[in-house]
Amino acid sequence: LIHGLAEDSRSWEPQLGRLGRHRTFAYDIRGHGNTTLGSADGTLAQLGDDLARFLAEVSGPAICVGFSLGGTIVLWAAAHRPELVRRAVVLATSSVVGRRACDFYADRIELARAGSPEELARALREDTAAALARPEVDVDAVTARRMEAIGAGGGYINGAAAMATLNGQPLTPDLRDVDCDVTVVGGELDSFCPRRAADLMLEALPRACYVEIAGVGHLMNVDDPDAVTAAIVEACG
After folding, report:
1. Alpha helices in 41-194 (DSSP H)
2. With the C-alpha atoms ordered 137, 141, 146, 147, is the resulting torsion angle positive or negative?
3. Residue 118, φ and ψ in degrees, nearest 5
4. pLDDT tens digit sequence for 103-138
5. For residues 148 and 178, what is the distance between their CA atoms, to the nearest angstrom?
């Protein structure tokens, strides 16, 4: 289970222990949670290689489930290290970003580099609110957990930079090399990764299907964790 930008492995707490017969692993990507940043280079290839090394050295070949940035990492690994990814489930994921999204990442990187936790927290709260569909969700609590996950901000900068590269170097062409079944999960109300993002992946992937979760935004595992669990269980078998 691979989390998204400004998250950590705790974001998968609703799924841990609830995926049937499967033994589950959830790790923190570079610079998030309890994982150090190391010599980060702001590339998807490095983050994908991190996953590949985890699979090779810890879990063995596995079903890989990724959310947002984590889903893009899963697709990179499935395309470049197919012997390690038995099946992929990608939630709220993109294989390419447009100019507007690239500018968004650049703005957030600049904020994080400026070193003002208060300004970054305000921006992240705005992003969190925009990524949720259920009005009863405590936006401040979710934002606080996300700020804790990114710590000093280096991993956030690194992950945002990796996603921004998908503007000039889309992952979409690489998806033709994915040799496993892929379930693409979208949120009905997701404005960050709308249905068009899913369609681009579905057109490129040799063996893929689409599942939509009703009434959720981008942070679907906050809006409706039970529906996300059910979608993962159905996809994983």
Report:
1. 44-54, 69-80, 99-114, 117-130, 139-150, 154-164
2. positive
3. -65, -45
4. 999 999 999 999 889 999 999 999 999 999 999 999
5. 34
- Distance CA(56)–CA(81), nearest Å, equals 10
φ, ψ of residue 15 to 5 degrees: the values are: -95, -30
pLDDT at 115: 82
Sign of the C-alpha dihedral, residues 42, 3, 49, 204? negative
pLDDT at 20 over 90: no
Is the Cβ–Cβ distance between 24 and 3 less than 8 Å? Answer: no
Distance between CA atoms of 221 and 82, rounded to whole angstroms?
27
Across residues 187-206, what is the average pLDDT?
Answer: 97
Instruction: List for the chain the helix, strand, coil content (%; round to 5).
Output: 50, 10, 40
Which class for 1: exposed (0-12), middle (13-18), buried (19 or more C-beta within 10 A)?
buried
Question: Rounded to an integer, what is the distance from CA 208 to the centroid of its chain?
Answer: 18
Strand, helix or coil for residue 113: helix
